[in-house]
Specification:
InterPro entries: AcCoA_biotinCC, Biotin_Carboxyl_Carrier/Decarb, Biotin_lipoyl, Single_hybrid_motif. By secondary structure, this protein is mainly beta. It has 2 helices and 12 strands, in the order αββββαββββββββ.
């Protein structure tokens, strides 16, 4: 199963009334549960690149709370979110420099961080050219599925 299919499956389960969903074939078993619990078994133990797809912000009906947030935040900023429950690492090792710092400009395919899930190190890559405006989580922090990790400004 490729990453795109897995993401589509996760979105389907998230929007459905299922509480738990299980998929199994000869190579992989995936169990998706509501409340952002994600368990995958028999995954190859090697780093795999993850490309986060960002959708353009949709206009939503504005409540007072949303209006306040929109006026305080720059609407040109895009959130890059975690595609999984994992541990966030800014660098490939404790002694290495971080992949990105605030103010860095990255191009499509550049590694932003590592997300460790079940002892598998997954590189999170930029899907578009951007400038890092804010890093929203600390190194070695546990993150949830769909949790914002970076605020970036698109450069394309």
């Amino acid at each position: 199963m490729d990453l795109k299919s897995l993401k589509e499956l996760m979105r389907f389960v998230e929007k459905s009334q299922f509480v738990e969903f299980e998929y199994k074939d000869e190579e992989i078993q995936i169990i998706l549960k509501k409340k952002e619990a994600f368990v995958a078994e028999n995954v190859l133990p090697q780093p795999q690149a993850i490309v986060v797809e960002q959708e353009k912000p949709k206009e939503e009906p504005k409540t007072e709370e949303k209006q306040v947030k929109q006026t305080q935040e720059d609407p040109s900023l895009v959130e890059i979110k975690s595609p999984m429950v994992a541990t966030f690492y800014r660098a490939p090792s404790p002694t290495s420099p971080p992949y990105v710092e605030v103010g860095d400009e990255v191009k499509k395919g550049d590694v932003l961080c590592i997300l460790e899930a079940m002892k598998i190190m997954n590189e999170l890559e930029a899907e578009f050219p951007c400038r890092i405006e804010k890093i929203l989580v600390e190194n070695a922090q546990k993150v949830e599925y769909d949790q914002p990790l970076f605020l970036v400004k698109r450069l394309d």
